[in-house]
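Q: Hand in one record:
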Amino acid sequence: MRERERNRRHFLHDTAALAAAIAAMPAAKVAVAAEDAPEPQKSSANETIRVGVIGVHGRGMDHVGGFSGQPNVKVVAICDIDENVIGPAKKHLEKVDPKSPPKYYQDLRKLLDDKDVDVVSVATPNHWHALATIWACQAGKDVYVEKPVSHNVSEGRRMVQAARHYKKIVQTGTQCRSHKAVQDAMEFIRSGKLGEIYMAKGLCYKPRGSIGHKPDGPVPAGVDFNVWLGPAPERPFNPNRFHYNWHWFWDTGNGDLGNQGIHQMDLARWGLGVDEFPRAVTSSGGRFGYKDDGETPNTISSFYEFGDKELQFEVRGLVTNPELDVKIGNLFFGTEGILAIDGYSTWRTYFGPKLEQGPNGKGGGDHYANFIKAVRARDHKILNADIEQGHLSSAYCHLGNIAYRLGRKLQINPASESFVNDAEADAMLTRHYREPFVVPAKIG
């Protein structure tokens, strides 16, 4: 506990100055001037859009397959700090086009310098999402970035500013927004048939076992650990903090609230119809059931207040029951009934005291196709998950985590996207960045 408290004080001290600068920024939705950015040209459906995928281990393989399957879209480059994991991506793309294998880069900065790349797809660990996106916009490339779009609250707003300033199309990887089932469910909510929606609940009941304990060790051959750390603090290599398990450490991840949970948080916010920060947030939880190296909670309940409605969110990483047969999804409570979104592609409704089932539906969608359509049209309004929406939903996850880490209710100023008279909480809106991997405090 003493070591944890020392680390927390060190973090707060290091970030205090930057947090003050962020809090002093203009109101959240002030437009960013873009006179210096050239007006991008629309492209025809016959022109080939060339994509570079950054991060091809795990989720990145879906990007490789999703983009290479689009008409007149070609994945021309892949990038990963670990040479040992690029085989499946290379093999897939060589099958798609045997005559033109993809270029490989270990450092994303070299990929961003490649003039043959029009679009960058970011599937890195969370702590790299913001910087990779901003650098890509500065390099003149459109971006598809995985969720959560940011590692902390202030990064997300700077990503929005970069997209607008450089006139780039930036899609958030919350693919549920492109699914017919979700779109139909939101239309049903808006129809008023559920009455007044007074509460939304996001459910992330996903089993997560212990990651155990592992000692620090040598960096594996073929891994550029310096670039992998990027904006995160300097520390020795530890296999338990590397592939996938980085989610469970505050330096690089955001726990399951910001991992799986961001999908359900996004839909909860969408269904409630809130496009700004809440007025207050409270969280409680812990890493229960086992002791391991992980830092983030495997169980957390967060409550977001808006005055006339409420958003609840629950992460349960241990054995648990479903709610209305939903374990990963959303519940929307109206004065006349309840709507449940089960997973990504199914919804159903319940009415009356006996919860009699009403209308329902299902159906998927293609988030990559939606992004490519917006890129060709040079219109971010076509996007189903524009970076502005990604920032807001990601920020809700970060706010819940901040309330958990501080252990108290936090009052929020939605206009400034900061806390009310709370320097300790404001310090956690950002982070101390390791040179030279610094997310710029000002865009343009």
